[in-house]
Amino acid sequence: MSTRVHPGLLEAIRFNADGLVPAIAQQHGTGEVLMMAWMNRDAVVETLETGRVCYWSRSRGGPWRKGESSGQVQTLVELRLDCDGDTLLLLVDQKGVACHTGRRNCFYRAARDGELVTIAEVAIPPTELYGSGF
């Protein structure tokens, strides 16, 4: 992809007090919502410049290049900004599963009849994605 990021784009994004903005990843073409994660300014720039989605990991305190340990890479198709500038929508091409639990997406539980039920099973066991230390 390798494109220069126009400063006006970054200025339009309303990062929160921690310098983060929520980013929703959606499979391009199908509309399947895959996951939500956080991005900081550097992650947005890296994603736009490389075409490989990079998030900001709050737990690791650093950049998280989707698929760096699991091989389940997200490639950016298009980045969209909502009307308020405070949420990103990433249209992506997801290789394999998006969720660390080994499911296609992170939204595998649903409230049904007052209970939380699992609606999607594991496609790839986490130990296959991350090794026995998971």
TrEMBL record:
Signal peptide: none
Phosphoribosyl-AMP cyclohydrolase domain residues: 35-108
Subcellular location per the Swiss-Prot or TrEMBL entry: Cytoplasm
Highest rank taxon of the organism: Bacteria
Catalytic activity reported: 1-(5-phospho-beta-D-ribosyl)-5'-AMP + H2O = 1-(5-phospho-beta-D-ribosyl)-5-[(5-phospho-beta-D-ribosylamino)methylideneamino]imidazole-4-carboxamide; 1-(5-phospho-beta-D-ribosyl)-ATP + H2O = 1-(5-phospho-beta-D-ribosyl)-5'-AMP + diphosphate + H(+)
Cofactor: how and how many bound: Binds 1 zinc ion per subunit.
GO CC term (a single one): cytoplasm
A GO BP entry: L-histidine biosynthetic process
Pathway terms, separated by semicolons: Amino-acid biosynthesis; L-histidine biosynthesis; L-histidine from 5-phospho-alpha-D-ribose 1-diphosphate: step 2/9; Amino-acid biosynthesis; L-histidine biosynthesis; L-histidine from 5-phospho-alpha-D-ribose 1-diphosphate: step 3/9
Keywords: Amino-acid biosynthesis, Cytoplasm, Histidine biosynthesis, Hydrolase, Magnesium, Metal-binding, Zinc
One Pfam assignment: PRA-CH
Enzyme kind, highest EC tier: hydrolase
Binding-site positions, Mg(2+): 82, 84, 86
Binding-site residues for Zn(2+), renumbered to this chain: 83, 99, 106
Record EC number: 3.5.4.19
InterPro entries for this protein: PRA-CH, PRib_AMP_CycHydrolase_dom, PRib_AMP_CycHydrolase_sf
One MF annotation (Gene Ontology) recorded for this entry: phosphoribosyl-AMP cyclohydrolase activity
Gene3D superfamilies in the cross-refs: Phosphoribosyl-AMP cyclohydrolase
Needed co-factor(s): Zn(2+); Mg(2+)
Quaternary structure, from the entry: Homodimer.
Family membership noted in the UniProt record: In the C-terminal section; belongs to the PRA-PH family.
HAMAP family (alphabetical): HisI
Protein role: Catalyzes the hydrolysis of the adenine ring of phosphoribosyl-AMP.
Protein name, entry field: Phosphoribosyl-AMP cyclohydrolase
Organism: Aerophototrophica crusticola
